[in-house]
Write a structure and sequence with these properties.
The complex is a heterotrimer. Helices cover 27% and strands 27% of the residues of chain A. By secondary structure, chain A is α+β, with helices and mostly antiparallel strands. The termini of chain A are far apart. By secondary structure, chain B is α+β, with helices and mostly antiparallel strands. Among the domains of chain B are: 24-32 and 456-601, Aldehyde oxidase/xanthine dehydrogenase, molybdopterin binding domain (Aldehyde Oxidoreductase, domain 4, 2-Layer Sandwich), CATH 3.30.365.10; 138-418, Aldehyde oxidase/xanthine dehydrogenase, molybdopterin binding domain (Aldehyde Oxidoreductase, domain 4). In chain B, the strands form 6 sheets. In chain B, strands 3-5-1-12-9-10-11 form a 7-stranded mixed β-sheet, sandwiched between helices. A 6-stranded mixed β-sheet of chain B has the order 7-15-14-13-8-27, with helices on both faces. Chain B is globular. Chain C is an alpha+beta fold. Chain C folds into 2 domains: 15-95, Beta-grasp domain (Ubiquitin-like (UB roll)), CATH 3.10.20.30; 104-172, DNA polymerase, domain 1 (Orthogonal Bundle), CATH 1.10.150. In chain C, strands 1, 2, 3, 4, 5 and 6 form a 6-stranded mixed β-sheet that branches. The longest helix of chain C has 15 residues, at 158-172. Classes of the chains: A alpha+beta, B alpha+beta, C alpha+beta. Chains in contact: A-B, B-C. At the B-C interface, helix 1 and helix 18 of B face helix 2, helix 3, helix 4 and helix 5 of C.
Chain lengths: 81, 754, 174
């Protein structure tokens, strides 16, 4: 079970919820479960979102494992220049 | 692929040195080929017709006279670009930006294009295209565009992120919010609260090379394109999608690139060139003029920002909030969101709240520009931080150190920070000799911190060993500033061979797997990680070959000092095998020797910098001279220190330009007035002093050598550092960037009037 | 920053087919070409003569990326008409090295990492060559003003100035 915090537009898409509890061992499972719970997150996940695990920001790599008790943040995809 | 990217301390022989870059001789002799330096046999000249109106409905386009002109081979409008975007609104915005479908949304918006046998005919053809415009009211100012009375760009926009959802359309596409705690409670705890509003004008990345490409769509469906880009794989993907082409049939080669800074991470004219070629049945060369680059390729946002920070007399910040309004051009973007995320990222705050508004205006589509959105937010925040420090009577560096984010700080955008480097940059700045340089009359010193995320991303590399033992490293991340040298150093380091034995090349899309763009400060970070992985794979192969050559178990073979060595007493008489020895018989031992890597580089971490700036302001003319400038930034590990310094200096120079002179000037008619380098004034050599740099090396635990991304952060502090310096020099707080001479004089005048 | 377009005595233009025939000298070679009346020297170098070292950054004489030397004088080739090249001596970046030996300025630019994207580099090398020809021992300020007609967006000019200082030292034989 991991606690996931949604920020920005993601929180609004999940019906205003900021934190969700999800049973998931890696990013892929996390995304699948999130979309099941909140279909409105679907388009964001498809476009690509950034996942922060214990403060380090990752791209949406499915196989990336979610360590137990890790702090997980989902942020919309960032743009660089 | 089982690659462990964790940092391992070691001493380096190649990494950290400053050899000449492999593409250097071509660049100093004029041989290097950029976007416009390539030609295909039979190519036509492509030119684009652009709207002269800031906002207009396109009622009809009659291209018949242009099509009939002798020498014209194709004319296209939006009707030649069917909508294949499949409800992907981002992609649809890109399509509409490449060529207007219903409305011209900014002065310079493409409405039609021609391909002709020469430039003269193409120019004449553009003049013959008749566009029936219904001119509409326009709005170019970010605050004006938010008003309910403002002309609407799209009547289908209802602000997202607002509850309840608005029922009236507006130009505000999105509202985002970040932060934690209770800012109002925090302000009540403060002894001093400062609240100010700021404005920054729109700037352009200002790369000296205009966008250029040569596109060829062949009758059998295969296509090729030569283009200056920061990401040829991304360009391929997006062009294929927009034109309904098979991605695998479109081969994109990135030319050498004459600057990008984020502006060449988006497609502008490339789909048009492909569409023209498809219609004409011949290659089309399309080069944007400087005027077109300013009018129709993406600049930054113009912003309007309110900041409020409260602190106790002991120097502890109790609460901070900001409201940020960023212009996006005619289509939505993540710009205010990025500003809202980065505003207070340098600080450890118990109560913080940032709100961002994305605002549509009749200006070109905002594009990424080096740490997009962060410099403007930093300007606003660091200005108030400075003012607060002065009001409380605490040294500005001490004030920042006291409140600096550190490992374990909950960032203002959410996640808790791991080991990071803001404190060290501040401490290093404090001790830097720059701080003790004397200041005279009309002179002032300013300091500022900056923050930016760094990206990882998809990266593929091939490391091939030739039969003579030399190494070709093939990468897919475009080299914008010398990364081929850094990657050669990394390969040389891993293999234990001299730098001169490695040649790094950037491959086209047909030769490697997908690579993300060179943006987000990811070029050297990601490609070096993939290079290390590929090199280690190649070493594995060479150990096996050595074992075969010696007829011993591979476990008895180690790789050391650029050679395979047999370990164990019974192999004592076997002399080490070099790369060349192994490569020479590769055909007999199993074939060509290579190492590959396809990985997603992650854990790039975040990046901090502190800048110090000294200025002298002439009170009679308002002109500002930069006397001294120092950049202190953490690079994790500087692979090629000269190119790391180059990134620090280049970003600082762009920031100085933005702080003092660069801005988009619009007329009453909503048209861009200064679309050339004469009046869009970037810094020239005589405007700047030597730019001091201090590279800190606090290893990034997620990279084998500790490398961090470095390319962008250096543009984040300058707006603030220069503004603080000017404010201190003239004794008046500057709140409008750029601080051009008229603005400084006006501020001095206003202060005198009080 | 202003550039002087080379002022030339008007000659009788020979019109051949639909172009103007021009005879000139480029990097020591006798060259003849045909160009349209509206083509600039930059267009001619790049599109007709394969000399792509000079770059088009702005076509209004503001960025210096097209800098060449005409009769010993630094000019923006985007402000010179192709036809005006008639009878003059033009030097471009392609003529700066001698065979396989780089000019000291070229070598020092590489050594000092005075280029990142390299797009402005040919123009800077021409401008620096012109500067040192008239002032072999310039101060930092003189170098900065001498190069103020060339824009660089990547480097912040620091390493460019150092490279020119070092090359000047080598060229003086210090």
């Amino acid at each position: 079970m991991v606690e996931v915090t949604l920020w920005g537009a993601l929180g609004t898409a999940a019906g205003g919820k900021e934190t969700l509890e999800v049973e998931a061992k890696d990013i892929r499972e996390l995304f699948r479960k999130l979309v099941e719970q909140h279909p409105a997150l679907g388009p964001f996940i498809e476009r690509g979102i950034a996942v922060s695990i214990d403060g380090v920001i990752y791209r949406d790599t499915w196989s990336k494992e979610l360590p137990k008790d890790a702090e997980i943040f989902l942020l919309p995809r960032l743009a660089g220049g | 692929m089982g690659f462990d990217p964790s940092y391992a301390a070691r001493t380096f022989t190649s990494v950290g040195t400053r050899p000449v870059r492999p593409d250097g001789v071509d660049k100093v002799t004029g041989r290097a080929r950029y976007g416009a330096d390539f030609n295909m046999p039979g190519q036509l000249v492509g030119r684009i017709l652009r709207s002269p109106h800031a906002h207009a409905r396109i009622k009809g386009i009659d291209a018949s006279k242009a099509e009939a002109l002798k020498g014209v081979r194709a004319v296209i409008t939006a009707s030649d670009l069917p909508d294949l975007t499949n409800d992907n609104s981002d992609l649809h915005d890109i399509l509409d930006n490449c060529m207007a479908r219903k409305k011209a949304l900014y002065d310079g918006h493409a409405v039609a294009a021609v391909a002709a046998i020469d430039a003269r005919t193409a120019r004449r053809a553009l003049d013959l295209i008749e566009v029936d415009y219904e001119v509409l009211a326009h709005v170019t100012d970010v605050d004006e565009a938010m008003k309910s009375s403002a002309p609407l760009l799209h009547d289908t926009v209802f602000t997202g992120g607002v509850e309840p959802k608005p029922t009236t359309a507006s130009n505000i596409t999105n509202r985002t919010q970040y932060g934690h705690g209770d800012v109002e409670a925090g302000f009540k705890e403060a002894d001093v609260v400062i609240e100010r509003s700021f404005k920054t004008e729109q700037t352009h990345q200002g790369y000296i090379e205009p966008h250029a490409c040569v596109a060829s769509v062949n009758p059998d469906g295969t296509c090729e394109m030569w283009v200056c880009t920061q990401g040829h794989f991304v360009y391929r993907q997006q062009c294929a999608q927009l034109l309904g082409l098979d991605v695998s049939k479109l081969r994109v080669t990135s030319s050498e690139i004459g600057g990008g800074f984020g502006g060449k991470t988006h497609i502008w004219a490339e789909p048009i060139a492909l569409a023209l070629s498809r219609k004409a049945g011949r290659p089309v060369k399309l080069v944007m003029s400087r005027e077109e680059v300013f009018r129709a390729s993406g600049p930054t946002s113009a912003t309007s920002i309110d900041v409020k920070i409260g602190a106790r007399n002991d120097g502890t910040i109790t609460s901070a909030s900001a409201t940020l309004r960023y212009s996006c051009g005619p289509y939505t973007g993540p710009w205010a969101m990025l500003g809202a995320m980065t505003s207070f990222a340098c600080y450890d705050l118990k109560h913080v709240k940032t709100i961002g508004y994305e605002v549509l205006v009749n200006r070109p589509k905002t594009a990424a520009y080096r740490a997009p959105s962060a410099p403007m937010a930093a300007f606003a925040v660091e200005s108030v931080i400075d003012e607060l420090a002065q009001k409380i009577g605490i040294d500005p560096v001490e004030f920042r150190i006291k409140n600096a984010a550190k490992e374990g700080t909950k960032s203002s955008y959410g996640p808790v920070f791991g080991p990071i480097g803001i404190g060290p940059t501040l401490e290093a700045a404090q001790k830097h000799p720059h701080m003790s340089a004397p200041l005279g009359r009309n002179q002032g010193r300013g300091l500022a911190c900056g923050f930016w995320f760094n990206f990882g991303g998809q990266t593929c590399t091939d490391l091939n060993i030739g039969s003579d033992g030399t190494v070709t490293l093939t990468v897919g991340t475009v080299d914008v500033g010398g990364s081929r040298a850094s990657l050669s150093l990394v390969a040389a380091e891993e293999l234990g061979i001299p730098y001169a034995q490695v040649q790094t090349v950037v491959a086209d899309t047909g030769s490697l797997g997908y690579n993300d763009m060179t943006d987000g400060s990811r070029g050297t970070f990601s490609s070096s990680m993939a290079t290390i992985s590929a090199a280690r794979n190649a070493i594995g192969v060479m150990r096996e070959r050595a074992a075969r050559m010696w007829d011993i178990p591979v476990d008895d073979v180690v790789w050391e000092g650029g050679h395979a060595r047999a370990v164990g007493e019974k192999h004592g008489n076997l002399s080490p095998l070099s790369v060349k020895d192994i490569a020479a018989v590769a055909g007999k031992t199993g074939g060509p020797v290579a190492g590959h890597s396809e990985l997603v580089a992650d854990g790039a971490g975040v990046s901090f910098a502190t800048h110090i700036c000294d200025v002298e302001v002439d009170p009679d003319t308002g002109a500002t001279k930069i006397l001294r400038y120092t950049v202190v930034q953490d690079a994790g590990k500087a692979v090629h220190p000269a190119y790391v310094e180059g990134q620090y200096q280049g970003g600082a120079a762009q920031g100085i330009g933005g702080a003092l002179n660069e801005e988009y000037v619009y007329g009453e008619d909503g048209c861009l007035q200064n679309h050339g380098f004469l009046d869009y004034r970037v810094p020239v050599c005589s405007d700047l002093p030597m730019i001091g740099t201090q590279i800190l090396e606090i290893p990034n635990p997620n990279h084998p050598y500790g490398v961090r991304g470095v390319g962008e952060t250096s543009i984040v502090p300058p707006l603030a550092a220069v503004a603080n310096a000017v404010s201190n020099a003239v004794g008046v707080r500057m709140t409008h960037i750029p601080m051009s001479p008229p603005r400084i004089l006006a501020a001095l005048e206003a202060a005198r009037a009080h | 920053m202003t550039r002087h377009a080379t002022t030339l005595a008007m000659r009788e233009w020979r019109k051949v087919m639909s172009g103007i025939a021009v005879s000139t000298t480029i990097n020591g070679d006798d060259v003849e070409f045909l160009c349209q009346f509206e083509e600039t020297l930059l267009d001619v170098l790049r599109d007709h003569l394969g000399l792509i070292g000079a770059k088009e950054g702005c076509s209004t004489g503001d960025c210096g990326a097209c800098s060449v030397i005409v009769d010993g004088r630094l000019v923006c080739s985007c402000l010179v008409l192709g036809a005006e090249a008639e009878g003059h001596h033009i030097e471009t970046i392609e003529g700066m090295a001698t065979g396989d030996k780089l000019h000291p300025l070229q070598a020092k630019f590489l050594e000092h990492a005075a280029l990142q994207c390299g797009f402005c580099t040919p123009g800077f090398l021409m401008a620096a060559k012109y500067l040192l020809a008239s002032n072999p021992d310039p101060t930092e300020e003189q170098i900065r003003f001498g190069l103020a007609g060339n824009l660089c967006r990547c480097t912040g000019y620091d390493k460019i100035v150092r490279a020119v200082q070092d090359a000047a030292r080598v060229m003086r034989g210090d």
